[in-house]
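User: Please predict structures.

Assistant: First:
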Amino acid sequence: KRALVDVADSTIEAICRDIDRRTETARRTDPNAELVACIDYLQLASTAENFRDNRERAVAHISKTAKQCAKRNKITLIMPSQLNDDGKVRESRAIAHDADVLLLIRKVKKKRGSTEEPHENDREIFCAKNRGGKKNWSCAVHLSGEYFKFNPRTT
């Protein structure tokens, strides 16, 4: 069963309470269910805490609270996040620190010495961090932007 919950203008604390409630309900039906939640996207969440215009600390709190929620409920929590111009997680290093797995979606660049330009929707998914697993691997994909869907790239 899938549920899409619009939590626009909700705090991370309210989002986590909703995840707690939904997880408890799902576990009553199937105690061994593999549950996944997605907060799209982390930097849009707010917090009930007052960080007096310190956005980095606020985002760190949001990241930590979400991680605690995922651990408490034993779920996979996916949280897309923006990168800055240097390819680092934007607004707080705590996001990458708290993550168990960090996947980067990168545009494919023209290969050195090649005359062929990559397709504008060619992407590479790169695993930059994976606690307890393999990292530094990549996967060639093609972005179907209208559906925000990735398909295997054949060439």
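Second:
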Amino acid sequence: CSVFFMLKERSYGAILFRQVGDHRLYLLLDRDGKQWNFSKGHGEDGETELSTMKRELAEETGISDLLVAQNFHEKITYFFRQAGELVVKEVVFFLCKTAQEDVHLSKEHVGYRWVSYDDALHVLSFDNAKDVLRKAEALLASGKAVFQRQLTELA
């Protein structure tokens, strides 16, 4: 009988967009010249989901002026290997809107792009990121996204 253990990680991220006329542009980050994704990162002691997402977004992009959709809280799960150990990672994404165009990248990323929804679907490296973007776009297209500056923590 063998016992199987997996390490668990949890991160929080932002699907960030800005409105330019009647177009939405989404911010994608290039981690290493070949992996395009959304801003995300691990929580620190005492942080909430929301405060982690806001801190990571500010650290990775310099963007801190944002509105958060109170009715969007999407989770993805995936597996990877780290030092020979299988890790299950869960990432919770918030949908955020900003008027800030300027991005100041941290050393974690080598590039960024503001892209349309269709372009984002082609540029994003991972299917689960594309799936969460589709959900965000559907909510925005429906006109039912509810944004506010200070979002209380979700249960």
